[in-house]
């Protein structure tokens, strides 16, 4: 795949608990992204529901077959879309999920594996954890999805890279914390550095889309963007400001990066497998 891909970053401000209104905004922005010539538009974590759902979970949760979800999937005939919501399974488990839709069909669903339940976060109290990571083919190439906290565990992008991913899509709802002297946020600086390392280490593009707005006194910093396999921010959206921003992915950069820094080529998955087996069995020493 050599053709460059235009990606739209939907840095929205969701309305907490109003799924219908958020769906309408997603559809409006999808149409605008089409007009701008985007191939794919990505929205943030829980963009259809708002983040602090807590006791609203039963009200906002939707199965994949719900009309609110099928409306968005149906509109993916003209542009691929990644959107996120609280998904209710047939067994009535509630997951933070991201859907990749294309051509009017669902191509992939990722359910957030790592639920932060510490400090200001309480996801594990209301929601169920996903069971793993997988890759799939999309306009972005071989693609893997993460959701926010998933990326704070190095095994997540590692497994997707070993699974063949050349692009990681990362919807997020990360708060603005620790204001720094230059007006930046400590949480934002951490994300920026973390994603640069991952992109360069694994030779992948990373599409990071973080929400903005306030909920229950919590501010979300935005700062969405695209990081290249060279560890460079191809584009970084403004902090705090709601908006639809566009960036370009050049698959040729993946080829050059992986040739120049062949970390994946030299990776010893067999060694990792044996070491993890020893750790699980409690026999690491010796």
Q: Report the count of strand segments.
A: 14
Q: Could you name the ranges where pLDDT drops below 50 across 5 or more consecutive residues?
A: none
CATH top level?
Alpha Beta
Instruction: Give the strand order of the largest sheet, numbering strands 1, 2, ... along the chain.
Output: 5-4-3-2-1-14
Derived structural class: alpha/beta
Number of helical elements: 8
Instruction: Return Rg in Å.
Output: 18 Å
Q: Which word captures the global form? A: globular
Strand content: 25-35%
Largest pleated sheet: 6 strands, mixed
Relevant CATH superfamily: Carbon-nitrogen hydrolase
Q: Could you estimate the helical fraction of the residues in percent? A: 25-40%
Q: Domain count, please report it.
A: 1
How do the helices and strands follow one another from N- to C-terminus? Answer: EHEHHEEEHEEHEHEEEEEEHH
Describe the structure.
- Keywords: Hydrolase.
- Residues 5-251 form the CN hydrolase domain.
- Pfam families: CN_hydrolase.
- One of its GO terms (molecular function) is N-carbamoylputrescine amidase activity.
- The protein is an alpha/beta fold and 286 residues long.
- It has one domain (5-280): Carbon-nitrogen hydrolase (Nitrilase/N-carbamoyl-D-aminoacid amidohydrolase), CATH 3.60.110.10.
- The chain has 8 helices and 14 strands.
- A 6-stranded mixed beta sheet has the order 5-4-3-2-1-14, with helices on one face. The protein has a 6-stranded mixed beta sheet with strand order 6-7-8-9-12-13, covered by helices on one side. A two-stranded antiparallel ribbon has the order 10-11.
- Helix 6 links the parallel strand 8 (167-172) and strand 9 (205-210).
- Helix 1 (19-35) runs parallel beside helix 3 (67-74).
- The model has no long low-confidence stretch (mean pLDDT 94).
């Amino acid at each position: 795949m050599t053709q460059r891909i235009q990606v739209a970053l939907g840095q929205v401000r969701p309305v907490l608990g109003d799924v219908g209104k958020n769906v309408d905004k997603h559809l409006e922005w999808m149409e605008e992204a089409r007009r701008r010539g985007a191939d794919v538009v990505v929205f943030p974590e829980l963009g259809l529901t708002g983040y602090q759902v807590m006791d609203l979970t039963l009200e906002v949760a939707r199965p994949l077959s719900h009309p609110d979800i099928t409306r968005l999937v149906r509109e993916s005939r003209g542009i691929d879309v990644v959107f996120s919501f609280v998904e209710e399974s047939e067994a009535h488990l509630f997951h933070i999920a991201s859907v990749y839709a294309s051509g009017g069909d669902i191509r992939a669903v990722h359910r957030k594996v790592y639920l932060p339940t510490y400090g200001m976060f309480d996801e594990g109290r209301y929601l169920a954890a996903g069971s793993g990571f997988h890759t799939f083919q999309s306009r972005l190439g071989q693609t893997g999805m993460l959701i926010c906290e998933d990326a704070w565990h190095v095994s997540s992008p590692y497994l997707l890279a070993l699974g063949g991913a050349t692009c990681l899509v990362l919807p997020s709802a990360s708060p603005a914390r620790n204001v720094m002297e230059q007006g930046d946020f400590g949480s934002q600086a951490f994300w920026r550095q973390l994603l640069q390392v991952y992109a360069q280490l694994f030779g992948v593009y990373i599409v990071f889309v973080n929400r903005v707005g306030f909920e229950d006194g919590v501010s979300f910093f935005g700062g969405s963007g695209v990081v290249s396999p060279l560890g460079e921010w191809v584009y970084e959206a403004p902090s705090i400001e709601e908006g639809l921003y566009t960036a370009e992915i050049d698959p040729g950069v993946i080829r050059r990066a992986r040739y120049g820094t062949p970390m994946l080529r030299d990776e010893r998955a067999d060694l990792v497998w044996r070491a993890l087996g020893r750790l699980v069995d409690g026999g690491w020493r010796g």
